[in-house]
């Protein structure tokens, strides 16, 4: 029924014109039939008691049926079986109207059908269930529905093929061992390689000489770091003997190092076993400056001087002039290129000139909203007018929300709050929506996939409410750093006809180093002294923890990005255990930033990070989107990030 309802809605959308709602012309491939007149035992009704019904099949063919108003849906199905081919092909079919299945006893006259609407014919095939050959109790029979013979035969055939393949593997006594050996041979980076007397007999369990030689050259006859075993949990590091490496291999030096010096230090120290498989140097870039736009007021110029800005980068000046002139614009420049000024300057300029105008900032994360709030509050100190800036998200106390709705002129929120709180109660935000001058959407590249689809629909609702109800047409400003097609993306996101693209980056950039780190191989005995030797790679969690501690020890402010909350906590725990040995005074200088903390704890961590009190943070993507943390020397990524944005 749900499928039929979806098809019906789609069909109705196609048969209406967007302006008048009149039925559109039928598809050329559809077959039109002459109206059918049902015959039966009922007396011939009067002309005014007859109704003409439009019936359409899923393949697009349609017909018209004329029945008496007192006739039933059963009579309609009988008439369709007489001359409508889709009904003749499938004797068992259902009729749906507006997503609801029609009852056979329902009278035609009781159906609420207006001009242009039609009934959908959906074929129905009943599957024949084969009884189970084994008798089961009634309780089990009701809980386990019978399986068709085709499915059972296919499952048995597939299982037999698997067992035949497993039986062909030599030296395998049972299926579990065979599967383990087969997995090891097909995935050498994650499997175990045996080195015993029978290794030459089984190609699936043989360990290549190259890997054995590499392990011996690295001096890893036995593993000192815990391996990753999918069948067991990672053992606790404080219980794992030999977790913290010996003093000869662990760095105890705390001499400050620059990024280039750290690369050489890692090559000669922690990465001496060949973990660094690639180094890419990204060259520096000189700045391209531009004077402040002449359209800026004297108050705005003083506000910029108060934060140390006397001139702008070329892309900032271009974006500001476009926004002030009322053009939609997307700024696609590199990270830390000053994109915030591209929208803060025109927004504050407009709010200071027009005391009724308002602006809406949409950020994907709460951390980014807090960061931008600090920047705006610092800039607006030079203005004599009162510009109330407030954050409206899930952390906002309920007692403050009423004041924000009545007084805020620059509202900072996120797509979820727009959907849940703002748009359903838009009359409470009438003052803001009727005077909305700018809509700023930062980190536009994050709105992709399902989240991007939801946000696109929310923005369409926002535009429709602003234009149709409050007569307001705000200017959009988008910012992104890692989108390959920024202009096309934002035009589809907000359904805009034209957006100006600014991507000539005028900001300076120092040289950067990109290192690809692969955990080293280690050899380990399993099953005691008589057991076989296996090779494993060190845990990537442990490797990131050692790198994290190295950065903190040598004075480099660092963020270690992890994909899950649990990984963040593990990296923090492991790094603190390493620092207990190499630099005990630095243990409390690192922490975790992730979702799940209360608002007060998150604000405290953010403040300590922005003020430089923390040397490092293990964080999820809650901290990865456009946060201005001042000075960051290094970022670590546990696992493959998956996109340039991370």
From TrEMBL:
Cellular component, GO, one term: nucleus
Domain Helicase C-terminal, residue spans: 543-646
Keyword Nucleotide-binding: yes
SUPFAM superfamilies: P-loop containing nucleoside triphosphate hydrolases
Location of the Helicase ATP-binding domain: 320-501
Entry keywords, A to Z: ATP-binding, Nucleotide-binding
GO BP annotations, alphabetical order: interstrand cross-link repair; nucleotide-excision repair
UniProt cross-references to CDD domains, sorted A to Z: DEXHc_Hrq1-like, SF2_C_Hrq, Ubl_ubiquitin_like
Coiled coil: none
GO molecular function: 3'-5' DNA helicase activity; ATP binding; nucleic acid binding
Gene3D superfamilies attached to this UniProt entry: P-loop containing nucleotide triphosphate hydrolases
Highest taxon above the source species: Eukaryota
Residue numbers spanned by region Disordered: 15-48, 190-258
Annotated PANTHER family: ATP-DEPENDENT HELICASE HRQ1
Protein name: Helicase ATP-binding domain-containing protein
Taxonomic classification: Eukaryota, Viridiplantae, Streptophyta, Embryophyta, Tracheophyta
